[in-house]
Amino acid sequence: MPTLLGLNSGTSADGVDAAVVRFEGETPTLALKILAWVHRAYPLRLKRTLESLYAQGRAPLDLLCALPYEIGDVFAMTALDALQAAGLSGNDIDVCGSHGQTIYHLAADAARDRALPVSTWQMGEASLIATRLGCPVASDFRAADIASGGQGAPLTPVLDDLLFRSAGKTRVRLNIGGIANLTWLPPVTQSGVPGLIAFDTGPGNTLIDSLIRRLTGGAEHCDRDGERALRGHVDEALLARMLADPYFTVAPPKSTGRELFSADWLEGFGVNDSDDFVATVTALTPASIVHALREHLPPVPPIDEVIVHGGGARNPAIMEGLRARLAPSIRLATVDEFGFAPETIEPLLFAVLAWKCLRREPTFLPGATGMRRPAVLGKLSWPAGLRES
Ligand SMILES: Nc1ncnc2c1ncn2[C@@H]1O[C@H](COP(=O)(O)OP(=O)(O)O)[C@@H](O)[C@H]1O
Ligand SMILES: [Mg+2]
User: What is the per-residue pLDDT for 372?
Assistant: First the structure.
């Protein structure tokens, strides 16, 4: 049974999540077991570099040249931490999947507006990671999706049939990272596994983080445990103005990023240092998610469960906001009850994609990214020298 390693840093650019994963058994009872997972925060200097890159939208060429190696180094160190935690070495790993750090994502609408091709850019030099670990590394998974007519995101639906599809229930898997995305999973029927729908709903934590950074002069990076949001009151009129952003009405498939939901975007709403403002920006996350559930998913079969992962699951103000806005018939849960910590789902995804890449197994996600034909996602990088096997 293969042993895999998955690495990811999401749009929050908070640091790298790594998971060591083993496949156990055979389909249909195939299980993915997390042997160890770790998070390593980006060094402050790198985090500041990335934040200013995102804020300014431009950088000198020497910085752009060096950055993939600097990021790759942190990815390699996080991978080594995870191996140590699992009591393994790189030789024990069949393949590592590394998402890298998204620097820019030009999804369909944003690309069209600027007369540019749909495109995406993840940094984190995979040859450096492969050499440091001593195992092959698959990376750059989004490029082949785009080449096959997709928007490059979201890719998480690859895991959904494996982990979250149910025989009797309609589930929504909801990832609240920097950006929030969901997958609608109607139950398996006698005629087979129905299609899924997946898309980015809008901001997850990114606006909250950006607001807190601004209000604290960069001393804090998030509203830890939703403390300020829970102290404040939501300004419903302001929230309605935020929800009027056209992104929320666009029909899926759709994806977005910090390029749209940025500090500049918030600026238009009269940023101020009150707990009420923090509460309102925080409420936009659950409000836009619940809006997406109502407006952009089929009404039948009705949703039974919403299962949350990503850092937003750790913010009680977001979770309480969801609970309050969801219909009472919908059960709100986190992936913990499926045996996964909320931070492990995305590294797990890139581990599985790496395994598919190594075996040249195609992926097809028409209902998620808008792909028009199946494609093997990812590019392989190899460690120096020859591996004994
Ligand atoms: N205890 C917490 N309280 C509030 N927010 C949290 C907490 N833990 C994590 N977060 C939020 O989750 C974000 C990271 O989530 P993550 O799923 O890693 O997003 P991404 O995939 O975009 O990196 C942090 O930037 C922060 O906003
Ligand atoms: Mg993260």
Answer: 95
